[in-house]
Amino acid sequence: MPPPRTLIITGASRGIGAAIALKAAYSEYQIVVNYAKDQEAADQVVEQIRKSGGNAIPIRADVSVESEVIALFQEAENRFGPIHGLVNNAGITGGFARVDETTRPMLERLMAVNVIGPILCLREAVKRMSTRYGHSGGSIVNISSLAARTGGAGEWVHYAATKGAIDTLTIGLAREVANEGIRVNAVSPGLVETDLHAAAGAPDRPARLSSTIPMKRPGTADEIAAGVLWLLSPEASYVTGTILEIGGGR
Ligand code: NAP
Q1: Is the pLDDT assigned to residue 4 strictly greater than 80?
Q2: I want to staple 89 with a disulfide (CB 3.0 to 4.6 A). Which of 75, 136, 143, 180 is the partner?
Q3: Residue 162 carries which DSSP code?
Q4: Predicted local distance difference test score (pLDDT) of residue 51
Q5: Is 105's pLDDT higher than 80?
Q6: Would the CB of 173 count as within 6 Å of ligand 1?
Q7: Which protein residue's CA is at the shortest distance from atom 9 of ligand 1?
Q8: For the chain, how many helices (H) and strands (E)?
């Protein structure tokens, strides 16, 4: 049997990240379940993965803090060996506001978590995967949002803009490292039933907006995870720089 490969998933204690981790338990990956605050939730995800026969460890790190991102990758490598995969999933919305209502502290936190954090993770991943540094390559999936295309008007244009940055990062980095054994893609979810909406102050948002979705329902975290796992897998060996929209026709 080939040795297990190591996958780091940021923000995997809940929602879409947790669903990706639980699905990856059935793949060739041993999984690093990253979280920011909720250790109990991360421990539960790890426990579920172990129960289903997979291998996982929780590692706390706030992706917006450079030293914590470096420590996350170092600890992952120390405990599991070479890194082969990254899912850049951790993200926040910054809360609901029109652009004329945004404040600098909220924008700084949003950019730090949704843009700078993912770039720091991409940097650490490339240094540990690229053939340029003597490694064997890997696969990266960034979690974007359909808001990057629709714009989030009246709700969170500021959040949508961070996801536009994720799309651009995906295209640019994919081309930068295409000849270094690394594929870089994004999954762009539509409306998905997770805690993200409650955290922004509107737990009923998925139900309320269902009628605006051509399929007339929000997606599940599991439906997003399926796309991520495919992009990570060798089945997608000729796919890079692609943004896979999973949004029920939105
Ligand atoms: P969620 O349920 O709110 O979960 C967010 C996860 O990110 C949690 O595990 C949280 O950890 C972690 N996290 C938050 N800030 C972090 C930080 N600074 N460093 C490390 N981890 C951090 O969100 P979700 O709905 O699953 O969203 C996941 C991704 O999908 C996000 O990038 C989001 O923008 C994107 N997305 C979501 C939807 C949707 O409708 N839900 C649609 C499109 C795109 P703790 O538990 O420790 O706080």
Answers
A1: yes
A2: 143
A3: H
A4: 96
A5: yes
A6: no
A7: 11
A8: 10, 7
Ligand 1 centre to CA of 162 (Å) is 13
Strand partners of residue 219: 192
Indicate whether residue 92 lines ligand 1 (CB < 6 A): yes
Residue 127: closest CA among 140, 145, 116: 140
**What's the 233 CA to ligand 1 centre distance in angstroms?**
23
Nearest CA to ligand 1 atom 1: 196
Pick left, alpha or beta for residue 216 (phi over 0 → left; psi -120 to 50 → alpha; otherwise beta). Answer: left
Residue 172 vs residues 7, 141, 197, 219: alpha-carbon distances, Å: 22, 13, 30, 28
Selection from 164, 163, 186 nearest residue 174 by Cα: 186
- Residue 2's pLDDT band, with cuts at 50, 70 and 90, is confident
Distance CA 142, CA 198 (A): 23
Mean of per-residue pLDDT scores for the chain = 97
pTM value is: 0.98
Give the domains, in start order, of the chain with CATH numbers.
5-246 (3.40.50.720)
Quote the CA–CA distance of 26 and 36 in Å, as a whole number.
25
Helix (H, G, I), strand (E, B) or coil at 243: strand
- Main-chain dihedrals φ then ψ at residue 2, nearest 5 degrees: -65, 150
